[in-house]
């Protein structure tokens, strides 16, 4: 219970001070989850906050793990907002147009395919039935690559425009590479003895998941690893998934091309706007993976609609309390499998049949060859009959039952009954193993399955993830200026100074990244300097009214000698 409370506090913005929240907002807005170094942090200009205040707030954010760090080879640090915090920040800080568009105004360009989870499932079934040999160079044989390309619904056009980096790119087409990357990353397959083999334990855990859980894990994996190293692109991918989105409603992609907020004038960290072409590449991938449909209006602007509820998808909040139904065996030997049939049952059915189609209802077909292949792998006609007797909602038609008996006799005469490792996936001796994996013991049932960053085929655009983690924190005293080196009256007294002293205080504030209070036109204002010119002497900075509650009232001004009166140096 205490651990759950700690997790809740660690992910709640309510526990942040106003300055910490403001700094986090600006870091998220500029960088999203991309890495940045100390130089970029020093260039970050946060309304009303001096550089010292930003550094102190940043230190607190690191302590609270809203920002994490890795160490580069030469000892310098890179910082980034952890991936699992990005959705929280998008919901809190993202400005979003949520108006939907009537379906009549949209022309459907591409309907979402059966889904990436289905593609993975079908490849796993194929691997269970066939030995996947590896060449001496460590890649699959060409015939297997071609076969995988024909099995998956994902197409080359769905991944066009994505900048995926992976070894053997001359051998694996991008759409095949994505499916292989997912299988490796979730540890469902492994290279062993010149073969690509199933990881039986991981497979049982995976098949114990719901379709929504599979889709969630895959979507998060793609968002973390396939999104290019661009804050604007990352903002866009999260805006698509915003909790305000409703499944089945059309939304403009153009309205979400991440432009960020209007920065303070002179801000050196402005990002480029995301192009419609960039957006289209990601939308095509989501369409090919079955998450969305892609449409276009009469002006040629892209729209999308979710084929599921994105809020419950990412939160895992939907609960299906209905009992799963059985499968249906037709007299023509077709096996109809409704979507609520458990994946373990579906997998076993797939092992002894031929796949016909994947839609809302999956269709397999019992054939003499499919039964013979299953028998060769250890699942004979008697086991097949027992399986379908248990799981068929309306029983087995008499002609199908008779055919299974006849095929069994033929197989017995041919001596094709053998044992196989893959059949143990469908029929483990300890039935509680699958049941347990559906609960907290399932490796994929963690709040967010971490996977193995180095196990995938595709290299992550976030290269910092392979660097050494750095949890060391600087001493607070190293951030705050030493007051013993500053005349005490500069920080204590509100008063006028001789012109040379006033300029010296301004320059001292700039050097220390500190703030000043100054009198301009009779009003007491806050001034944060950020640039000095010598000939003639002028200092530029942001000027704020301390009595205003708004953070956005700052004005960039340039002050010459004598353009302010009283002043005081402000040190946190």
Question: What is this entry, summarized?
Answer:
By secondary structure, the protein is α+β, with helices and mostly antiparallel strands. Helix content is 37%, strand content 16%. Helix 16 (381-391) runs antiparallel to helix 17.
Keywords for this entry:
572 residues; alpha+beta; Arc Repressor Mutant, subunit A; 4 domains; five-stranded antiparallel beta sheet; four-stranded antiparallel beta sheet; 21 helices; disordered N terminus; Helicase XPB/Ssl2 N-terminal domain-containing protein; XPB/Ssl2_N
Notes on the protein architecture:
This protein has 572 residues and is α+β, with helices and mostly antiparallel strands. The chain folds into 4 domains: 112 residues, Arc Repressor Mutant, subunit A; 229 residues, no CATH class; 91 residues, no CATH class; 88 residues, Cathepsin B, Chain A. Helices cover 37% and strands 16% of the residues. The protein contains 21 helices and 21 strands. The strands form 6 sheets. It has a 5-stranded antiparallel β-sheet. A 4-stranded antiparallel β-sheet has the order 3-9-10-8, covered by helices on one side. Strand 11 and strand 12 form a beta hairpin. The protein starts with a helix and ends with a strand.
């Amino acid at each position: 219970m205490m651990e759950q409370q700690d997790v809740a506090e660690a992910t709640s913005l309510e526990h942040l001070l106003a300055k910490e929240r403001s700094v986090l907002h600006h870091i998220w807005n500029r960088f999203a989850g991309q890495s940045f170094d100390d130089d970029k942090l020093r260039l970050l200009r946060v309304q009303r906050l001096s550089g010292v205040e930003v550094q102190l707030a940043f230190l607190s954010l690191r302590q609270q793990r809203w920002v994490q760090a890795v160490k580069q080879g030469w000892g310098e640090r890179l910082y980034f907002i952890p991936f699992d915090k990005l959705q929280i920040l998008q919901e809190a800080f993202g400005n979003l147009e949520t108006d939907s568009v009537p379906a009549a105004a949209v022309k459907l360009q591409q309907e979402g395919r059966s889904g990436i989870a289905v593609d993975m499932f079908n490849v796993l079934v194929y691997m269970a039935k066939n030995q996947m040999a590896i060449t001496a160079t460590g890649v699959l044989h060409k015939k297997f690559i071609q076969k995988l390309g024909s099995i998956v619904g994902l197409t080359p056009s769905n991944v066009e425009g994505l900048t995926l980096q992976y070894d053997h790119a001359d051998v694996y087409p991008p759409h095949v590479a994505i499916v292989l990357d997912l299988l490796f990353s979730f540890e469902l397959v492994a290279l062993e003895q010149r073969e690509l083999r199933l990881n039986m334990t991981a497979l049982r855990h995976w098949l114990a998941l719901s379709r929504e859980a599979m889709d969630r894990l895959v979507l998060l994996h793609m968002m973390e690893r396939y999104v290019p190293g661009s804050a604007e692109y990352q903002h866009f991918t999260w805006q698509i998934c915003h909790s305000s989105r409703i499944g089945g409603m059309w939304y403009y992609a153009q309205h979400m091309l991440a432009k960020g907020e209007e920065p303070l004038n002179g801000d050196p960290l402005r990002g480029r706007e995301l192009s419609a072409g960039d957006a289209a590449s990601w939308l095509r991938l989501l369409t090919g993976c079955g998450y969305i449909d892609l449409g276009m209006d009469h002006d040629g602007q892209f729209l999308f609609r979710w084929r599921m509820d994105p809020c419950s998808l990412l939160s895992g909040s939907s609960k299906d309390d209905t009992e799963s139904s059985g499968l249906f065996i037709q007299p023509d030997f077709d096996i109809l499998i409704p979507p609520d049939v458990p994946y373990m049952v579906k997998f076993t059915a797939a092992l002894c049949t031929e796949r016909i189609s994947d839609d809302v209802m999956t269709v397999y077909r019992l054939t003499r060859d499919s039964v013979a292949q299953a028998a060769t792998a250890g699942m004979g006609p008697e086991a097949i009959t027992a399986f379908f007797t248990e799981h068929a909602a309306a029983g087995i038609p008499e002609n199908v039952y008779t055919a299974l008996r006849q095929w069994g006799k033929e197989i017995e005469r041919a001596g094709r009954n053998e044992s196989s490792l893959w059949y143990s996936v469908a029929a483990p001796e300890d039935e509680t193993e699958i049941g347990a994996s559906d609960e907290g013991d399932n490796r994929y049932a963690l709040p967010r399955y971490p996977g193995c960053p180095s196990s995938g085929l595709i290299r992550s655009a976030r290269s910092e993830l392979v660097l050494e983690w750095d949890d060391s924190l600087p001493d607070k005293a190293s951030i705050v200026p030493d007051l013993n080196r500053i005349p005490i009256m500069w920080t204590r007294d509100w008063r006028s100074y001789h012109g040379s002293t006033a300029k010296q205080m301004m320059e001292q504030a700039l050097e220390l990244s500190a703030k000043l209070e100054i009198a301009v036109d009779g009003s007491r204002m806050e001034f944060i300097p950020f640039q000095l010119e010598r000939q003639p002497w002028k200092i530029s900075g942001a000027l704020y009214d301390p009595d205003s509650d708004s953070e956005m009232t700052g004005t960039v001004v340039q002050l010459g000698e004598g353009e302010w009166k009283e002043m005081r140096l402000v040190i946190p």
